[in-house]
């Protein structure tokens, strides 16, 4: 079964003092394009997380986010950096005296607004037990995204089969017009020679020229190649995951054969059918970009 590159997954892990939230989503992309936002406490594990995601998801524009929610009663006030406050205080007094500028009227408020005075510095280390729970949470979110991709892939496969069946049916509709086309070409040439040019002509030579002309407009090879591409597209669909690029190449080849059919058709009804085939193929091309 093919997979879509569109997916979403979310999971949480409950720890004693906090809740870990993991969210991952993906869209279509030619290669793996992974961006991460990870809580500072777990940033040292970023490469481990990236490797796990890349190994499972393979392709797509992937956004990964891991954040912490503190439980009620576990929040603590950010400590005031007394050493830094004192340093700021001495610097401001020195500058004030040197430049003859009045000192702040509200020292305390002024000092608290300065950078890093009340910043909270994480000094905790991640234990193996804690990381194991978080890793399970990440794996669950990835698994949800993969299941989402499979569901979307199933819908895409149904759409592809429908479109391929439509093109196959349209290809079969061309046959009756091919014989009719030969007769019309012959009538048009004879009419031009007899009525427009008003000249005698060698009927044997006409037949030879007509055969040559019709051979140039013969579309049997194009029909056969297109039919082969249609069958190959379906068999590739059934080969499982990771077929997106291959399906895209097959769709391009189908397009070449359909375009050649259109240029050789020389018949209004055949050209209408070719236009319908192009419409069906364009819908395939749009959706195949989302296949992993």
Question: Describe it for me?
Answer:
By secondary structure, the chain is an alpha+beta fold. 62% of the residues lie in helices and 12% in strands. It has 8 helices and 4 strands; from the N terminus they run E-E-E-H-E-H-H-H-H-H-H-H. The chain has helices spanning 46-57, 82-99, 107-112, 128-196, 203-216, 220-237, 244-265, 268-288, and strands at residues 7-14, 18-27, 32-38, 60-70. A 4-stranded mixed beta sheet has the order 1-2-4-3. A hairpin with a 3-residue loop joins strand 1 and strand 2. Helix 4 (128-196) runs antiparallel to helix 8 (268-288), helix 6 (220-237) runs antiparallel to helix 7 and helix 7 (244-265) packs antiparallel against helix 8. The radius of gyration is 35 Å and the shape is elongated. It starts with 6 loop residues before the first strand and ends with a helix. The mean pLDDT is 86.
